[in-house]
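Lab meeting, item 3. Inverse folding demo.
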Protein backbone atom coordinates (compact mmCIF):
# COMPACT_ATOMS: atom_id res chain seq x y z
CA UNK A 1 0.00 0.00 0.00
CA UNK A 2 1.40 3.41 -0.98
CA UNK A 3 1.47 6.07 1.71
CA UNK A 4 2.60 9.60 2.45
CA UNK A 5 4.71 10.19 5.54
CA UNK A 6 3.56 13.38 7.25
CA UNK A 7 5.67 15.08 9.93
CA UNK A 8 4.86 18.15 12.01
CA UNK A 9 6.98 20.03 14.53
CA UNK A 10 5.71 23.06 16.41
CA UNK A 11 8.71 25.39 16.18
CA UNK A 12 12.05 25.78 14.45
CA UNK A 13 13.72 24.80 17.73
CA UNK A 14 11.65 21.64 18.10
CA UNK A 15 12.50 20.56 14.54
CA UNK A 16 15.98 19.78 15.85
CA UNK A 17 14.77 18.31 19.16
CA UNK A 18 15.75 14.68 19.84
CA UNK A 19 12.41 13.92 21.50
CA UNK A 20 9.82 14.88 18.89
CA UNK A 21 12.04 16.20 16.12
CA UNK A 22 11.81 15.48 12.43
CA UNK A 23 14.27 12.58 12.45
CA UNK A 24 12.59 10.85 15.38
CA UNK A 25 9.17 11.06 13.73
CA UNK A 26 10.58 9.95 10.38
CA UNK A 27 12.28 6.94 11.95
CA UNK A 28 9.10 5.89 13.74
CA UNK A 29 7.11 6.14 10.51
CA UNK A 30 9.77 4.20 8.61
CA UNK A 31 9.70 1.41 11.20
CA UNK A 32 5.90 1.28 11.00
CA UNK A 33 6.07 1.10 7.20
CA UNK A 34 8.50 -1.81 7.30
CA UNK A 35 6.36 -3.74 9.78
CA UNK A 36 3.10 -3.24 7.89
CA UNK A 37 4.08 -3.59 4.25
CA UNK A 38 3.66 0.06 3.19
CA UNK A 39 5.68 2.08 0.72
CA UNK A 40 6.38 5.77 1.37
CA UNK A 41 5.93 7.64 -1.89
CA UNK A 42 6.40 11.14 -0.43
CA UNK A 43 7.58 12.84 2.77
CA UNK A 44 5.94 16.13 3.79
CA UNK A 45 6.89 18.29 6.80
CA UNK A 46 5.21 21.32 8.40
CA UNK A 47 6.80 23.50 11.08
CA UNK A 48 3.77 25.04 12.74
CA UNK A 49 1.45 24.67 15.73
CA UNK A 50 -1.01 21.79 15.64
CA UNK A 51 -3.79 24.20 16.59
CA UNK A 52 -3.48 26.12 13.32
CA UNK A 53 -5.37 25.08 10.22
CA UNK A 54 -3.24 26.75 7.53
CA UNK A 55 -0.42 24.26 7.02
CA UNK A 56 1.03 24.23 3.50
CA UNK A 57 2.11 20.58 3.38
CA UNK A 58 -0.99 19.20 5.06
CA UNK A 59 -3.11 21.35 2.75
CA UNK A 60 -1.50 19.56 -0.21
CA UNK A 61 -2.62 16.22 1.22
CA UNK A 62 -6.14 17.42 1.97
CA UNK A 63 -6.97 19.63 -0.99
CA UNK A 64 -4.38 19.15 -3.72
CA UNK A 65 -3.86 15.39 -3.82
CA UNK A 66 -3.50 15.52 -7.59
CA UNK A 67 -0.17 17.28 -7.08
CA UNK A 68 1.15 14.32 -5.07
CA UNK A 69 2.02 10.73 -5.99
CA UNK A 70 -0.92 8.30 -5.80
CA UNK A 71 -1.42 7.11 -2.22
CA UNK A 72 -3.88 5.15 -0.10
CA UNK A 73 -2.79 6.24 3.35
CA UNK A 74 -1.22 9.07 5.32
CA UNK A 75 1.02 7.93 8.16
CA UNK A 76 1.93 10.15 11.12
CA UNK A 77 3.99 9.62 14.25
CA UNK A 78 1.07 10.47 16.57
CA UNK A 79 -2.42 11.75 15.86
CA UNK A 80 -1.64 15.08 17.52
CA UNK A 81 0.84 15.66 14.69
CA UNK A 82 -2.25 16.09 12.51
CA UNK A 83 -4.03 18.44 14.93
CA UNK A 84 -4.20 19.27 18.62
CA UNK A 85 -7.71 20.64 18.15
CA UNK A 86 -10.38 17.92 18.24
CA UNK A 87 -12.65 19.55 15.67
CA UNK A 88 -9.76 20.08 13.26
CA UNK A 89 -8.61 16.48 13.64
CA UNK A 90 -11.97 14.97 12.76
CA UNK A 91 -12.43 17.38 9.89
CA UNK A 92 -9.09 16.22 8.44
CA UNK A 93 -9.88 12.59 9.20
CA UNK A 94 -13.18 12.61 7.33
CA UNK A 95 -11.80 14.70 4.48
CA UNK A 96 -9.29 11.92 3.82
CA UNK A 97 -11.84 9.19 4.42
CA UNK A 98 -14.04 10.58 1.63
CA UNK A 99 -11.17 9.87 -0.76
CA UNK A 100 -10.68 6.39 0.72
CA UNK A 101 -7.37 7.49 2.20
CA UNK A 102 -6.55 6.07 5.63
CA UNK A 103 -5.08 8.22 8.39
CA UNK A 104 -2.70 6.01 10.37
CA UNK A 105 -0.60 6.62 13.47
CA UNK A 106 2.52 4.73 14.50
CA UNK A 107 1.62 5.12 18.19
CA UNK A 108 -2.18 4.83 18.33
CA UNK A 109 -3.83 1.88 16.63
CA UNK A 110 -7.51 1.41 15.79
CA UNK A 111 -9.04 -1.85 14.58
CA UNK A 112 -10.95 -1.74 11.31
CA UNK A 113 -14.70 -1.75 12.00
CA UNK A 114 -14.22 -1.15 15.73
CA UNK A 115 -17.29 0.71 17.06
CA UNK A 116 -15.12 2.36 19.72
CA UNK A 117 -12.45 3.62 17.29
CA UNK A 118 -13.93 7.10 16.90
CA UNK A 119 -14.54 7.37 20.63
CA UNK A 120 -10.92 6.44 21.24
CA UNK A 121 -9.73 8.96 18.65
CA UNK A 122 -11.91 11.64 20.22
CA UNK A 123 -10.47 10.92 23.66
CA UNK A 124 -6.91 11.17 22.38
CA UNK A 125 -7.63 14.46 20.62
CA UNK A 126 -9.31 15.84 23.75
CA UNK A 127 -6.22 15.05 25.82
CA UNK A 128 -3.94 16.66 23.20
CA UNK A 129 -6.15 19.76 23.04
CA UNK A 130 -6.18 20.11 26.84
CA UNK A 131 -2.41 19.77 26.88
CA UNK A 132 -2.10 22.62 24.38
CA UNK A 133 -4.42 24.81 26.47
CA UNK A 134 -2.47 24.02 29.64
CA UNK A 135 0.80 24.99 27.96
CA UNK A 136 -0.73 28.28 26.83
CA UNK A 137 -2.09 28.88 30.33
CA UNK A 138 1.30 28.22 31.94
CA UNK A 139 2.98 30.55 29.47
CA UNK A 140 0.43 33.27 30.14
CA UNK A 141 0.83 32.95 33.90
CA UNK A 142 4.60 33.16 33.52
CA UNK A 143 4.31 36.40 31.56
CA UNK A 144 1.87 37.82 34.08
CA UNK A 145 4.20 36.99 36.99
CA UNK A 146 7.14 38.59 35.21
CA UNK A 147 5.04 41.70 34.53
CA UNK A 148 4.01 41.93 38.18
CA UNK A 149 7.71 42.12 39.00
CA UNK A 150 8.17 44.93 36.48
CA UNK A 151 9.78 42.84 33.74
CA UNK A 152 9.04 43.10 30.03
CA UNK A 153 6.46 40.46 29.10
CA UNK A 154 6.11 40.96 25.37
CA UNK A 155 4.14 43.20 23.08
CA UNK A 156 5.14 46.36 21.26
CA UNK A 157 8.34 47.95 22.52
CA UNK A 158 7.88 51.64 23.34
CA UNK A 159 9.96 54.17 21.43
CA UNK A 160 13.31 54.63 23.08
CA UNK A 161 13.78 50.95 23.91
CA UNK A 162 14.70 47.62 22.36
CA UNK A 163 14.73 44.12 23.81
CA UNK A 164 17.83 42.08 24.69
CA UNK A 165 17.35 38.61 26.22
CA UNK A 166 13.90 39.54 27.50
CA UNK A 167 15.04 42.84 29.02
CA UNK A 168 14.17 46.33 27.82
CA UNK A 169 17.27 48.41 27.12
CA UNK A 170 17.43 52.06 26.09
CA UNK A 171 17.86 52.59 22.36
CA UNK A 172 20.32 55.47 21.92
CA UNK A 173 18.96 56.20 18.43
CA UNK A 174 15.39 56.54 19.64
CA UNK A 175 15.90 58.11 23.06
CA UNK A 176 16.21 61.66 21.56
CA UNK A 177 12.75 61.19 20.02
CA UNK A 178 11.18 60.62 23.44
CA UNK A 179 13.15 63.45 25.04
CA UNK A 180 12.15 65.87 22.26
CA UNK A 181 8.46 64.93 22.51
CA UNK A 182 8.25 65.53 26.26
CA UNK A 183 10.45 68.65 26.21
CA UNK A 184 8.40 70.31 23.49
CA UNK A 185 5.11 69.30 25.11
CA UNK A 186 5.98 70.14 28.73
CA UNK A 187 8.26 73.12 28.39
CA UNK A 188 7.22 74.79 25.15
CA UNK A 189 3.58 73.62 24.95
CA UNK A 190 4.14 72.73 21.32
CA UNK A 191 1.21 71.21 19.43
CA UNK A 192 1.33 67.56 18.41
CA UNK A 193 1.50 68.48 14.73
CA UNK A 194 4.38 70.89 15.31
CA UNK A 195 6.24 68.21 17.31
CA UNK A 196 5.93 65.96 14.26
CA UNK A 197 7.51 68.71 12.13
CA UNK A 198 10.34 69.20 14.63
CA UNK A 199 11.12 65.48 14.59
CA UNK A 200 10.99 65.39 10.79
CA UNK A 201 13.33 68.37 10.49
CA UNK A 202 15.66 66.66 12.96
CA UNK A 203 15.90 63.63 10.69
CA UNK A 204 13.84 61.34 12.89
CA UNK A 205 11.46 58.80 11.34
CA UNK A 206 9.19 56.06 12.66
CA UNK A 207 10.38 52.47 12.80
CA UNK A 208 8.77 52.01 9.40
CA UNK A 209 10.76 54.90 7.98
CA UNK A 210 7.79 57.29 7.81
CA UNK A 211 6.97 60.75 9.18
CA UNK A 212 5.67 60.83 12.76
CA UNK A 213 1.94 61.46 13.10
CA UNK A 214 0.11 63.21 15.98
CA UNK A 215 -1.44 59.88 17.04
CA UNK A 216 2.05 58.41 17.61
CA UNK A 217 3.12 61.48 19.60
CA UNK A 218 -0.05 61.22 21.67
CA UNK A 219 0.77 57.55 22.37
CA UNK A 220 4.26 58.45 23.58
CA UNK A 221 2.87 61.17 25.87
CA UNK A 222 0.20 58.85 27.29
CA UNK A 223 2.95 56.39 28.21
CA UNK A 224 4.62 58.87 30.58
CA UNK A 225 4.62 56.50 33.61
CA UNK A 226 6.64 53.98 31.58
CA UNK A 227 9.26 56.57 30.67
CA UNK A 228 9.44 57.49 34.35
CA UNK A 229 10.28 53.89 35.27
CA UNK A 230 6.89 52.19 35.68
CA UNK A 231 5.62 49.16 33.79
CA UNK A 232 2.14 47.98 32.78
CA UNK A 233 1.05 44.74 31.07
CA UNK A 234 -2.45 43.90 29.90
CA UNK A 235 -5.14 44.79 32.43
CA UNK A 236 -2.78 45.01 35.39
CA UNK A 237 -2.00 48.38 36.97
CA UNK A 238 1.30 50.22 36.87
CA UNK A 239 4.14 48.69 38.89
CA UNK A 240 7.77 49.68 39.40
CA UNK A 241 9.66 48.55 36.30
CA UNK A 242 13.13 47.08 36.06
CA UNK A 243 14.03 49.11 32.95
CA UNK A 244 16.07 52.29 33.12
CA UNK A 245 13.79 55.38 32.83
CA UNK A 246 14.38 58.02 30.19
CA UNK A 247 12.49 60.71 32.09
CA UNK A 248 13.04 61.84 35.69
CA UNK A 249 10.02 61.41 37.93
CA UNK A 250 9.27 65.12 37.53
CA UNK A 251 9.71 66.40 33.98
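The presenter then showed the designed sequence:
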Amino acid sequence: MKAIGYIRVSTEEQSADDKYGIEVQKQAISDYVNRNDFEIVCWLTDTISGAKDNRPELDKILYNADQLPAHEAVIVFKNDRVARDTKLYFYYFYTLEKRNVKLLSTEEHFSEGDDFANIYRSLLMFVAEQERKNIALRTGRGRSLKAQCGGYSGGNKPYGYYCVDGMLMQNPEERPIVETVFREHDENHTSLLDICEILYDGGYRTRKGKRFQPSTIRGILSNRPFYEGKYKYGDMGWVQGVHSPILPLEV
